[in-house]
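Q: I'm a student working through a structural biology exercise. My instructor gave each of us a protein and asked us to get a predicted structure, then write a short paragraph describing it. Mine is SGNH hydrolase-type esterase domain-containing protein. I'm not confident about reading structure output yet, so if you can add a plain explanation after the tokens, that would really help. Here is the sequence I was given:
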Amino acid sequence: MPDFDTLKKYKLISVAIILGVAVSYLGILYLVDTFAGSFGLAHLLNSKNIMSKHREELRGKIKRDPHFKDVDVEGYIKEVEKIISMDEKRKLGDWISFKSFTPNVAGEYITTNDYGMRSQWNLKEMIERARKNRDKGISNIVILGSSVAFGYGAINDEQTISGVLNSMLKEDGYEVFNLAQGGFTSFMDLFSLSAIGLYLEPDIIIVMEGYADILHLAYKSKGGELAWGLFSGSEEKSDPEFALGFHYQNLDAILRLGTQSDRQVVLALQPLSGFENDSTIDNDKIKKMWAFYPQIREVMRLAVENNGAEFLDLSIIFKEEKNSSINFFDQVHLTVAGQKKVAKVFMATIKNRSEIRPEHVNFFRLRGEWIKNILKKDFSGTYKTAEDY
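A: Happy to help. First, here is the predicted structure for SGNH hydrolase-type esterase domain-containing protein. I'll explain a few features afterward.
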């Protein structure tokens, strides 16, 4: 039998090993929490630690929101986790889709298409519907933005901002297409409009933002860096003057694209909990941004004034309410009640358009005719090649 000293030695070694493993584990957790911004969102949320924290926070948000009283909470949480985990997401490059929601989610509460947009139609079907709408005299509305415009916080697709707005305007001859994605900045909205949105031949473009572009000025992102194009990874974006200038440049480009061809463009500043309202929902996670919000509001106003668009200050729509906390799912996302109120403001703005809608010039159809004419034309003899010299 081993003597007492040997047993004591083995016990000390075992304790040392256990302590070493525990310290290493805590060290890994510390590194993940400390350097969260340097990892991709999918990487973080797929880790057990981060997903567990997210699940706990989401369960708390749902518990305090009375709109979820008849909803299967665990089923809803699973669907939310599915869209943010980005399984089988498109690989379109670090600038473009690394922040988008998981495509092809068909749940009871949340539906995304093949590009991660909140739609039952895939992108090809969306474009086909939009073009058929044009022939039927139905006006197309495109919504751009991040997770707030996507409808995060609503209990189902129908009660998102876009779902409610579509229901309100359907009888008046409109259809709403939601192109918003999680984490999108104005840079990504510009990409989305130019690469996708214009193919939907929109009569009205709604751009709803204000939070994602300046979040980094007040808080360190736990979900990784947002898309900044050429300036991704650059320290320059931490300068408020540069960040606001970059935001203005993106908005200016969006509005220039949008206001062509007699389109109506609405630039909307999204609400924040506690800013211009008495909501106390997660104020500790947002109050540092309150001082930046008047600045971003003026940047948006300036972009609108310089491009003949329309500005909607949604940050003040809950100003006169008592207990406006009912509108906020968290510090920035909206409950069913909040999303419905935003949709009503959009509806009123759209209905206030001139009763005589300007005749739409179908540039996509004209483009097809122009290309056909170019292909039919004989250019021989109008140029020289090396063989002619």
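A: Here are two points you could use in your paragraph. The domain at 46-352 is CATH 3.40.50.1110 (Rossmann fold). The beta strands are 139-145, 174-178, 204-209, 264-269, 310-313. It's a good idea to check both against the output above yourself.
Q: Great, thank you!
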